[in-house]
Amino acid sequence: MNAEIIAIGAELLLGTTVDTNSAYVSRQLTACGLGVGRVTLVGDDPEQIAAAVREGLGRADLVICMGGLGPTLDDVTREGVALALGRPLEFHAALLEQIAARFAAMKREMPESNRRQAYVPAGARVIENPRGTAPGFIVEDEAGTVVVLPGVPYEMRYLCEHALIPYLREERGITTVILVKTLHATGLSESMIGELIADLMNQENPKVGISAKQARYELRMSVRAETYTEAEALLTATSSTLAERLGANLVGAEPLAATVVKLLAQRNLSLALHEATPVAPIFRAMTAVRGGADAIAGVVVHPLDQAADEDAAVALAHAGATNVLGRWRAELGLGAQPVSSPDPSGLTAVCVALVTPDGLVRQVTRRYDLRLPEGWDFVATLALDLMRRYLQGEQA
């Protein structure tokens, strides 16, 4: 059984509301063994909703709609689904009584417009909503199954967990297990990683995919099996294969910054930073992680006050790391220094140096487009990965 999701609401198309509901439902469906093939955003228009439902049923066994079940005139999901399935809307007196009772419990008078919420397509199974006034419903049609849930997140989540998932498992016999695990990597380009694991990306089960962000990569593994134990075994085997293929470039199950903070804590080491930019990308990346601020003994932010070429940047990064190491008596000093101006291509050389109390120095220079807002994030990745490799014992 495969599924599609339709998120409904003009606010989603305008960008004033972010569609978090679809991500949540996708995770829930994946956990119970259903693959989600597509997520569609549709505005508050019954014809557009009907078209999206018909198209979804043409591809999938199950279509889940969310949103547009409120009492106002722009809440037209009921009409759209009914139109798609060629069914009239039917009034349910019992639903109206439940809605009225909820208003009475809140000691408020029910507006007449809430009567709209007591209509569902003919033959639909009503999903009562104890968290709000918008009931959901399930329509089992020869074209496929349509489940409609309210768009208010806490109402949707409750009905998903207490109605949708039980319906799929108990009545539709969905027993397959799908597990998803993410590993993190860096140090190689996305294309290089893709070449190393091309066979894993092409196979159906387990399936591996890559997402890239500022020279950090998420390797998502998804496996399908009949039991949890079988799925776990497949994940373990695939994780081992990735470790063999990527070697030291595989960070692990935690993101890069979290891994560095964890390694520092395990070895009871403190870190001092020297960053030659007000952006302070390394400090920013580390303090965004729980425990990151505790690992930093001190930080100096000292923008370049005179012209520096690449040789000077290397020397300044080294000197900065050495200075903060002694100033805060830390176990590790890390310095980041860009040259004073980009080269003709627009790229700026940045040197990162790591210094230890015994005088060991590791340094690396890369070129980035620092005109871009995310350019400094690449610098943070470079610095954190240099430190990770040292902390994990990789030889220079």
TrEMBL record:
Domain of life per record: Bacteria
Position of the signal peptide: none
SMART domains: MoCF_biosynth (SM00852)
UniProt-listed Gene3D superfamilies: 3.30.70.2860, MoaB/Mog-like domain
SUPFAM superfamilies the record matches: CinA-like, Molybdenum cofactor biosynthesis proteins
Residue span, MoaB/Mog domain: 4-171
PANTHER family: NICOTINAMIDE-NUCLEOTIDE AMIDOHYDROLASE PNCC, NMN AMIDOHYDROLASE-LIKE PROTEIN YFAY
Family the entry assigns: Belongs to the CinA family.
The protein's name: CinA-like protein
